[in-house]
Design brief:
Alpha-Beta Plaits; alpha/beta; Rossmann fold; Helix Hairpins; single chain; six-stranded parallel sheet
């Protein structure tokens, strides 16, 4: 819960007590509203003035309850206000500086532009995978949520070059454009591609008309949430078992068996050999399910033993964490 929200809740509780408690005195003691409100105020603030009139036993117990609730609400309000005030001051003075220093040290990280419904899921997935990333969001309330989650963040517009530079996009490995409209995603893609030509850019597209524009602007992958969710729904209806399995091995970080992609480096043990020669399944336990040759966009699925692996090829493999780690060692020089 954000500090600002705590202040609002505490203030609401305190005002609700001041408004509702007088009706208790009116019902129990038969007081008029003015006297009942006065009795509530001197009770809540514990100023020690004499009661308006002698209280019955029920009135005394009701007063005890009002004191307990009132003092608790008052302290909660004061504590929430002080926490909000000092937290903002501390963040402005020290927090931002420390955050900037941490971001400047990042290398090969990811930049997540937009912390809305889509961006939040992206960040959660990145956090589960244990990779470094920076959130860029212009909405202050959304930034508060990112702060509560402990995410590195930049408060500003992702469409501005200075904001992307502050997020370290020149040193980043990849960028996600998950902003609310295609125009902002387009501007962000252009700026990010200009700052880092080698950056992997994945962008969200709401309209089909924007796909070609985003691709021309430099996006490597364009995801339409509505089209993707529609295909997933249809796949689940037609092949629910296949959908569940693929969803498990590609999304669930904690599952024992999962799918991973590996890029073959020049001079690595895999470079220049066939799958049969390498006997990868026996050596590592990992199963190569697809190969994409360097410079191609097409995958060779279910590759046979005569399939040659060269530097720059992308391998899609299935196995346990240990199996995939063993295969990764063979893919690097």
């Amino acid at each position: 819960m954000g500090a600002q929200r705590r202040v609002v809740i505490a203030l609401f509780m305190f005002l609700a007590l001041l408004i509702l408690a007088p009706f208790g005195y009116m019902l129990i003691e038969g007081m008029g509203y003015n006297d009942a409100f006065y009795m509530t105020v001197i009770t809540v603030f514990t100023v020690g003035f004499t009661e308006v009139e002698p209280l019955t036993t029920a009135g005394q117990y009701f007063t005890i309850i009002v004191i307990i609730i009132g003092v608790s609400a008052l302290f909660f309000l004061i504590a929430s206000f002080l926490r909000y005030t000092f937290r903002e001051a501390f963040r402005e003075t020290f927090g931002r500086r420390r955050m900037d220093l941490r971001i400047k040290k990042l290398q090969d990280h990811y930049v997540i532009c937009g912390y809305g419904r889509v961006g939040e899921v992206v960040c959660d997935t990145m956090a589960e995978a244990g990779v470094d990333f920076v959130v860029v969001e212009i909405d202050h309330d959304r930034i508060e949520d990112a702060i509560d989650r402990g995410f590195l963040h930049i408060e500003g517009s992702a469409t501005e070059t200075d904001t992307l530079e502050q997020a370290g996009v020149k040193r980043a490995k990849g960028l996600v454009c998950a902003l609310e409209n295609d125009a902002d995603n387009l501007f962000t893609t252009i700026s990010a591609r200009f700052l880092n030509p080698d950056l992997m850019i994945v962008t969200r597209s709401i309209s089909r008309d924007s796909v070609d524009k985003l691709r021309f602007a430099g996006a490597d992958r364009i995801i339409s949430p509505y089209e993707l969710s529609g295909r997933q729904m249809a796949t689940f209806l037609l092949r629910p078992g296949v959908y569940d399995y693929l969803d498990l091995v590609t999304i669930d970080i904690a599952v024992e068996y999962r799918m991973e992609e590996l890029l073959v480096e020049e001079g690595s043990p895999l470079d220049g050999h066939t799958i049969g020669e390498l006997d990868i399944k026996a050596k590592t336990g990992a199963l190569i399910t697809a190969v994409r040759k360097s410079g191609s966009m097409d995958f060779e699925t279910n590759p046979h033993k005569d399939t040659r692996i060269d530097a720059g090829d992308l391998l899609i493999a299935l196995g346990t964490e240990r199996d995939l780690t063993g295969l990764e060692k063979l893919a690097v020089a």
